[in-house]
Amino acid sequence: MSTLEQMFPSLTLFSDLNWETVTSEYLTGYGDLSFPEYLQQKHIEGDCPPYLFELAYFEQALFELKDLKIENPPQKGIFLNPTSLFLSLEFDIKKMLENAHQGEIHIIEKQHVVCLFKNQNGQIISIETSDEELFLLQKLEEGPREDSSFVEKEHQTFFEKFLQNGLILNL
Q: According to a count of CB atoms within 10 Å of the terminal CB, is the N or C end of the chain lower?
């Protein structure tokens, strides 16, 4: 089993990839790109469906988070979890994978943003975020806040949910 097969185990569920051919082509002609970028390039060239590169980006993010350790910032305040990764997707990859593990292969189109992160207990969490929730989270991208006064009243529920699941850290 190749390293690529280990990192991207679900790709063969949604395609008839010949890993030997794909690995050879990737390493000889596209080695300067990440594997998901390679699949995205193959899609642009008409040789790969778009859901495969999205699936690869999703699996790469999960792979990266698996061994990542959360290091709390040295200062006090309210922070966006430093392990958070945001993916803008055209397909419901999470649902497609859930269905695939139950033996049902379906391609589900759905434009949305998913945030993957590791919480303080070491669990990898996946949350679909709305535009309003992203608006709140963007306020933390510039750095920590001293307190929660930046949270508008209509976003308080989102803030509490994100604190509870560990996407926002209050240190």
A: N
DSSP E strands: which ranges in the chain?
A: 78-80, 85-91, 109-118, 124-129, 168-170
Cα–Cα distance, 133 to 157 (Å, whole number): 10
CA atoms within 13 A on the CB side of 2: 15
Contact 1, 45 (CB under 8 A): no
> What is the C-alpha to C-alpha distance for residues 130 and 113, in angstroms, rounded to an integer?
7
For the packed helices 93-101 and 50-66, what is the interaxial angle rounded to 10 degrees? 80
Please write the tens of the pLDDT for every residue from 43-56.
999 999 999 999 99
At 52 the three-state DSSP class reads helix
